[in-house]
Amino acid sequence: MCKRKTKMKKVLFVCSYSQSRSPTAEIWLSQYEGFEVKSAGTYSPEARVRLSEQLIDWADMIFVMEEEHKEVVLELCPDAESKITVLNIPDRYREPELMDILEKKLGYLKNGHARGRE
Q1: CATH H superfamily, domain 9-108
Q2: Any idea where the domains of the chain sit in the sequence?
Q3: What confidence score (pLDDT) does residue 95 get?
Q4: pTM to 2 decimals?
Q5: What is the maximum alpha-carbon separation in the chain?
Q6: In which band, very low, low, confident or very high, does the pLDDT at 118 lie, cut at 50, 70 and 90?
Q7: What percent of the chain has pLDDT over 90?
Q8: I need a labelling partner for 98 at 20 to 30 A (CA). Which of 15, 16, 46, 65 fits?
Q9: Where are the beta strands (DSSP E) in the chain?
Q10: Three-state secondary structure call for residue 79
Q11: 3-state secondary structure 39-59
Q12: What is the pLDDT of residue 5?
């Protein structure tokens, strides 16, 4: 019997500095099968990984923590709007509370849904 190869969804998480929120989201989603996950920050030189056109083009889905991050993504790549979801997670949360918020907002991804918004 042949096994059907499942295409990995490429997911990019974006926050300001890629030091807390987006790397935490990357770790959270990486524990589930079917996803290739990266994270980036919008502000350089402080960003651990800097957002780029290449990362935006790479991603099938982009989750930004705040509306301002969406604006930066669209400045770099105006055609990316259809793959962006704003999570509205301000920069005041840390683990484990941040993990709980991610589970509530993105738990649907674990069940194979392509896109959903809270």
Answers
A1: Response regulator (3.40.50.2300)
A2: 9-108
A3: 75
A4: 0.86
A5: 51
A6: very low
A7: 64
A8: 46
A9: 9-15, 35-41, 61-64, 84-86
A10: helix
A11: EEECCCCCCCCECCHHHHHHC
A12: 60
What distance in Å separates the CA atoms of residue 92 and residue 12, rounded to the nearest whole number?
20
Which two three-digit tokens encode residue 93? Answer: 């949360």
**103 near 29, Cβ under 8 Å?**
no
pLDDT at 116 over 50: no
53-103 tens-digit pLDDT: 999 999 999 999 999 999 999 999 999 999 999 999 988 877 788 989 999
Terminal alpha carbon distance of the chain:
39
Nearest of 91, 101, 88 to residue 25 by alpha carbon? 101
* Rg (alpha carbons) of the chain, rounded to whole number: 14
* Residues listed for the chain: 118
Q: Which two tokens stand for residue 94?
A: 């840390």
Distances (CA, A) of 61 to 4, 20, 39, 115, 116: 22, 20, 12, 9, 11
How far apart are the C-alpha atoms of 97 and 41, rounded to whole Å?
A: 20
